[in-house]
Amino acid sequence: MKKTTIHDIAAELGVTFSTVARALNDHPAISAATKAAVLETARRLNYQQNKLASSLRSGRSNVIGIIVPSLDTSFFSSVVHGMERVLNENGYSVLLYQTGESQVQEQKGVNTFLQSRVDGVLASVSAEKDQTEFYASLRKRQVPLLFFDRAIQELAIPSVTINDFQGGFAATEHLIQQGYQNIVHIMSDLHLTIFKERLRGYVEALKQHGLPVREELIFKGRVSLELGQQTVQQLLETQTPFDAIFAAEDYTAMGALQTLQERGVPVPEKVGIIGFANEAFGAFVTPSLSTVDQQTVKMGEETARLFLQLSGQKNFYQETPERIVLDPILVPRKSSTRGVNQ
Amino acid sequence: MKKTTIHDIAAELGVTFSTVARALNDHPAISAATKAAVLETARRLNYQQNKLASSLRSGRSNVIGIIVPSLDTSFFSSVVHGMERVLNENGYSVLLYQTGESQVQEQKGVNTFLQSRVDGVLASVSAEKDQTEFYASLRKRQVPLLFFDRAIQELAIPSVTINDFQGGFAATEHLIQQGYQNIVHIMSDLHLTIFKERLRGYVEALKQHGLPVREELIFKGRVSLELGQQTVQQLLETQTPFDAIFAAEDYTAMGALQTLQERGVPVPEKVGIIGFANEAFGAFVTPSLSTVDQQTVKMGEETARLFLQLSGQKNFYQETPERIVLDPILVPRKSSTRGVNQ
């Protein structure tokens, strides 16, 4: 029996080849009614999308692998949605791998994607030191790799990141402008440039406003609700004077907010709080949580577009890798706003 | 040059083959120090885990594909973490595919996993009607498939779900016991048994407590923050009498809570609210959001364990597929608690 092709479906429906191809790839320009008709006809004619065969012919799988620390946070899930939208529109399927910040898992993820013969890997790294040869090896094999949000700067790999220095600076300056002076910073102990840059922004804002940088107000740990809670408990038990907290991540800021409320310390009147990442819950809580938005969907879309652009070139890897840096956006809410008179 | 094997690494370090194999698979029983030493030695000896070759020999890839509607909700990301923990411990890598509730994407996900030659697929479906042949075809090809949370009951496929009827009943009965009588229900318009069962629980609780079931208090749509907001706006504009809302999903409950607060309707005093799914934000908001917990991590672990158990049998597919049903847990918080005297 002759195998059904996209041309057969197009002829049956009286539409173009391109319409059928795009309908089968769920392209947004094709109406739901057309997609339903195409799928119905494809099924009736027993059409089989033989991806494996076409992938062996073209050497392409049309699958992109994305490596993320975790999809628990709206930060990463929102970035991934931006990527999926652009990649799906361009005929790619997207597979995800969570590392849980483990480099062993990260290496397994890269190997699993190689084994699945993906056409490219988009990765946000777990740590920038220690073992990173598995990323360098992708370049050696000419498998397209892009970093997003967390990049290994030493490797000549294209990347899309945000200006974390500017984000840390804006968050700290906002607290200073609201009249807070003894500002705690809670950051990650992972080897990641993003957290070092946010710290650098915090230090620079204090300096520019003539405030001292006090080492005893800088706390490091695995950023989480618990880290924020523990830090505030420690600050209160040691009676360390402080009137604001800039946490490098929203869940940590939320933990700090919870413990201050439990101990009867009014936020923002006595202590101001700002987080980082604009997690979805921040707008729901009372007081609403100030934060720094990282343009997540845009980061995802830009990463996907840069992949598509570089994949269209003769050599994916250029001598000087393209590095797109997005601007963060300060999102002041109630947890750090004392009003104009203070 | 002779290829480095696991035996070479074991000999070099003076440990057993099993220790090296488990260290390379990130097994939790192996210490971080040992893992680091194994990785260091593996790198130094230029060891290459040739997964593709071994997969071609054994016919196994040791990769499991998971299909979910979206990882934006803590419900699905938490279930997936439960699965990953059990599967990683047993030497499997896990790849994820998000469908965004689109059946076209869902079919692409199944095809992508087949193309990647996964050893099994764990899926939570986008809809139970229309096109589901792609799931039936996995069974025909003897590719192991399990459903979790959302299953297609017509297909003889093993599954792990929760008792949604009982969850809907418990949520509604809790509101009645708190003295609420005119209870709105907001549910999904997707073709999914989980929502139909929650509705059935709502109806049965009203009946058992002698309350009328009023069609005008049952609202359907794409569950989301916006659906909750719109439903409350509509209820207030049409001056429909109501004193409680049971939303079949937490974001929808949150949207309802926000709009009631904006309009100055006190929660829980005037209107009680309960959601479903125990999303992470529910404990943070004011008033804290009552909900129904679905034992997410346990659901993930049970699904992974059932996969491992069935994979160890001669035939993965039994005549009568195993169907594990977990009990939901009522989580009453402030949004629905008026105190014992009311």
From TrEMBL, chains A, B:
Residues 4-58 form the HTH lacI-type domain. SMART domains: HTH_LACI. Coiled coil: none annotated. The keyword DNA-binding applies. GO terms for molecular function: DNA-binding transcription factor activity; transcription cis-regulatory region binding. The keyword Translocase does not apply. Pfam families: LacI, Peripla_BP_1. Keywords: DNA-binding, Transcription, Transcription regulation. PROSITE patterns: HTH_LACI_2. This is LacI family transcriptional regulator. It comes from Rufibacter quisquiliarum. The lineage of its organism: Bacteria, Pseudomonadati, Bacteroidota, Cytophagia, Cytophagales.
